[in-house]
């Protein structure tokens, strides 16, 4: 149980285009989803916290107008990288947290974004 | 906010040896400490976690210890195997409320187990 999927797994796009990444909790309801970015050989950096039905909370330094997050249902959150540039190339990972007091997060397999 | 320091950054052991990775955290309100294994090109996989009301937890070859007073926790892997080779991350979380249980990660440890 507790499976999180991401789609697509890999995307290559031209500079200036927008890219949408989906994160789904397959067998549980996720009241909270988190979006991370990971550069090569570095740790995971939290970008934003997404709660179902409300606006996402962004970490300091993350542009909310560039990284649009939508958490429209208890099983789906989307991250849209708008007007992508080569410096946005990274590994994007989502995680989902179940309802209740547990802090446990379940991570998706990640999406490799390459902006040419 | 929370700050998590992880050491060492790289660890090389022979198959069958033990491996120990250590982390320290700064926020005394943190109460959940998971460890993740990440293989190349994949998302992190939870391997073991511990909560602040417990000092030690073991799952087969993997164990975690927590010292709340000193604010540090450690991952112990015994009888290492080549398939244990990966990047390991520690993390800390201070629970719900306005943080919604967000995790702060350590810098990661590249573990290499030589056959």
Structure description:
The complex is a heterodimer of chains A (116) and B (115). Chain A is mainly β. Chain A has strands spanning 4-7, 10-13, 19-25, 30-38, 45-51, 57-58, 67-73, 76-81, 90-98, 105-107, 111-115. Chain A is built from no helices and eleven strands. In chain A, the strands form two sheets. In chain A, strands 2, 4, 5, 6, 9, 10 and 11 form a seven-stranded mixed beta sheet that branches. Chain B is mainly beta and 115 residues long. Chain B is 0% helix and 55% strand. The radius of gyration of chain B is 14 Å and the shape is globular. The mean pLDDT of chain B is 93. The interface between A and B is medium-sized, with 25 and 25 residues.
- Structural class designation of chain A: mainly beta
| H/I helix tally of chain B | 0
Rounded radius of gyration of chain A (Å): 13 Å
Which consecutive residue ranges of chain A, at least 5 long each, have pLDDT under 50? none
Largest sheet of chain B: 6 strands, mixed
Q: How confident is the prediction overall: mean pLDDT of chain A?
A: 92
Give the biggest sheet of chain A.
Answer: 7 strands, mixed
Instruction: Count helical runs of chain A.
Output: 0
Number of strands of chain B: 11
Low-confidence stretches of chain B: none
Judged by helices, strands and strand pairing, the structural class of chain B is: mainly beta
Task: Offer a few descriptive terms.
heterodimer, A: 116 residues, mainly beta, 7-stranded mixed beta sheet, 4-stranded antiparallel beta sheet, 11 strands, B: 115 residues, 6-stranded mixed beta sheet, 5-stranded antiparallel beta sheet
Summarize the SSE layout with pairings.
The complex is a heterodimer of chains A (116) and B (115).
Chain A: E1 4-7, E2 10-13, E3 19-25, E4 30-38, E5 45-51, E6 57-58, E7 67-73, E8 76-81, E9 90-98, E10 105-107, E11 111-115
Parallel strand pairs in A: 2-11
Antiparallel strand pairs in A: 1-3, 3-8, 4-5, 4-9, 5-6, 7-8, 9-10, 9-11
Chain B: E1 4-7, E2 10-14, E3 19-25, E4 32-38, E5 45-51, E6 56-59, E7 62-67, E8 72-77, E9 86-93, E10 103-105, E11 109-114
Parallel strand pairs in B: 2-11
Antiparallel strand pairs in B: 1-3, 3-8, 4-5, 4-9, 6-7, 7-8, 9-10, 9-11
